[in-house]
Amino acid sequence: MATLNQILAEQAKLIGEAKSSLEAAHKKPPTQGAPIAAREATVAELKARVANLTDAKATFVKQVDQQLATYQAEITALEKLIEEDKKRFGDQPTPPRPVRRKGGGDK
Questions:
Q1: How far apart are CA 66 and CA 69, in angstroms?
Q2: Is the pTM of this model over 0.70?
Q3: Which helix (H) or strand (E) covers residue 16, if one does?
Q4: Degrees, nearest 5: CA angle 90-91-96
């Protein structure tokens, strides 16, 4: 395990290197290509985000389409059952639903 003096010495060394690097950067003006490189990096990042969003959109649309197809298949199956029931039992009106009363008890 490193001693406190070793840790402090390592930190001082890292800070000194960072300070030297910063001073050198201040003395040397940025190249003319620096703004272009920064813009190109931004464009690349935005393109990556667009690609990710496009993939996410495609996945979402696929999931919604699958859910719609499931519902449509269920509707079709239920409609077919209704038609079969009508043929079997005749075209009788659907009986009304019983009315449920709240708090049902003897009064």
A1: 5
A2: no
A3: helix 4-27
A4: 115
Task: Give, in order, the Cα–Cα distances in Å from 39 to each of 2, 23, 25, 44.
Answer: 44, 25, 20, 9
Centroid of chain to Cα 56: 7
Largest CA distance in the chain: 96
What is the CA 12 to chain-centroid distance, rounded? Answer: 44
Tokens 């649309």 belong to residue: 61
Q: What is the pLDDT of residues 31-85, one digit of tens each?
A: 788 888 889 999 999 999 999 999 999 999 999 999 999 999 999 999 999 999 9
In angstroms, rounded to a whole number, what is the distance separating the alpha carbons of residues 87 and 78?
14
